[in-house]
Amino acid sequence: MKIKPKHTFIESLPADPLLENYRRQVNAACYSYVKPRQTSAPKIIHVSHDMANALGLSTKDTRSSDFANLFTGNTVLQQTRPYAMCYGGHQFGQWAGQLGDGRAINLFEVAHQNKQWTLQLKGAGATPYSRSADGLAVLRSSIREYLCSEAMHHLGVPTTRALSLALTGDKVLRDMLYDGNSAYEKGAIVTRVAPSFLRFGSYEIFAARQDHKTLKTLVDFTINRHFSFLGSPSKSTYAKFFAEVAKRTLNMIVHWQRIGFVHGVMNTDNMSILGLTIDYGPYGWLEGFDFGWTPNTTDSQHKRYRYGNQPNIGLWNLYQLANALYPLIEAVEPLEAVLEQYKVDFESKSLEMMRLKLGLEKQMESDVELVQNLEEILQSTETDMTLFFRNLSLYKKGDYLNGLTVIKDAFYKPHEVAEHIAQSWRGWFKAYDVRLEKEVHSDQERQLQMNTVNPKYVLRNYMAQLAIDDANKGDYELIDELFQMLKQPYDEQPQYEKWFAKRPDWARHKVGCSMLSCSS
Ligand code: AMP
Ligand code: MG
């Protein structure tokens, strides 16, 4: 297998001098060297060939036993030294101290076609950062991460990627519902790929420990390596760096809002410094459009990470990053200016995104009201977000009396759409129609544009669960079917039409289909 590992990443950062992997607090170091655990029967069950190609690997390479051994941690390439990163984080609003790569092991880096990638195993055994957990991952959550991260990439959302999904052949004990009923599940490993896995929490940990020396080393490294266009590190560059991170964070979250993705655990240790969607745990996709929805059972009481709150949480998390960077900048104003700008940009970017979803190219003041009214009616009765926006593109100008017919498939309980709601819809379609008159595009042109921002296929929770149920029985065909379909989420793909449908009723309250715990 022709893979050319590099090791530029760790060279300039301080390492933990201890080479053991027992659990501990690691001070004044950004990472610890670790050994992946040996697996008993490694087996690759799916490969993202797009990702493999981006790394310079051929299909033949991915079929070799070298590949299977490398991407399950059974072999370590010569001249590479796997490592786990140290980071901290705010979890559900509270400072949680040291967290770190408790079950992620970075193998090495690859430079290909002017891009640098870090390859990382998730679920390859304990590290100094594993705290009280085992360092492993189960098939169920690995399928969810594998399918969703690649789907997000093809949806045009900044994200970490996935190269492969493998079984380890080992059993892993999990209490899936946190109800005292533990059971053995199949162990699995996803190979994740990203230009960097640094998180907000990577910086917070050193600020919290008042270790400003390591903090500065890491920030300078980050700028030199990933943000060099901002100039060489200095106080003013640090402020520009923060502005750039804020911009990317907002961009990522506006994409989430556009497609109805709810991350579920927006803790600061799950916020990428590059603005990539990272750490796919109890995430979910909106089915009924509802700002108050979260898939995460651990968060069901306060719903801190609900759909409608994601932009605010992005800002809250940026406040934590601002606090972490403050010791290097020693001035509040530049940081505050960025946080203020986020609020302004959030309003304008959200409106811009909703205009695109509605097929509106011009900017008119009345659009704010049109959008707000729509969001209100969408929530007044359970309306499938994906179906609604996709079918709205079929609307024909002048036909507002029949607007409801175009979108009727999106209602979960059509017979319960009361007369006053139907009335609201008619009112909204009339306003939409008046607004469309101000545009120059034909119905067909508008439809084409709308279909580039409103996906036809997303990874609904029940779909992932069906693939998981099959995979647990040793059948991986559905993983492949969903994977292939989600490579072209904006295309019609008639062969997959059955997946362009509301969540079936049996899935409404089924475990894994509507609510998920963090157990993974
Ligand atoms: P998460 O909320 O899944 O992003 O994880 C939060 C923290 O818990 C991170 O430091 C993870 O590395 C760690 N963690 C999660 N699951 C495990 C596990 N099975 N073994 C060790 N550490 C874990
Ligand atoms: Mg995490």
What is the domain total for the residues?
A: 3
Query: What is the 3D shape?
Result: globular
β-strand amount: 5-15%
As laid out across the biggest beta sheet, the strand order is 1-7-8-10-9-3
Tell how many strands the DSSP assignment holds. Answer: 12
Evaluate the radius of gyration: 23 Å
**Helix-strand string:** EHEEHHHEEEEEHEEHHHEEHHHHHHHHH
What compounds are bound to the protein?
adenosine monophosphate, magnesium ion
**Tally the helices: what do you get?**
17
What's the rounded overall pLDDT mean? 96
Summarize this entry quickly.
The protein is an alpha+beta fold and 520 residues long.
Characterization of the model:
The structure is a single chain. With 520 residues, this protein is of the alpha+beta class. The chain has three domains: 2-197, no CATH class; 201-356, no CATH class; 360-440, no CATH class. 40% of the residues lie in helices and 13% in strands. The strands form four sheets. The protein has a six-stranded antiparallel beta sheet with strand order 1-7-8-10-9-3. A two-stranded antiparallel ribbon has the order 2-4. Helix 6 runs antiparallel to helix 7, helix 9 (310-329) packs antiparallel against helix 10 and helix 16 (461-472) packs antiparallel against helix 17. The mean pLDDT is 96. The chain binds adenosine monophosphate and magnesium ion. Residues 99-103, 129-130, 133-136, 265, 269-270, 279, 281, 518 line the site of adenosine monophosphate.
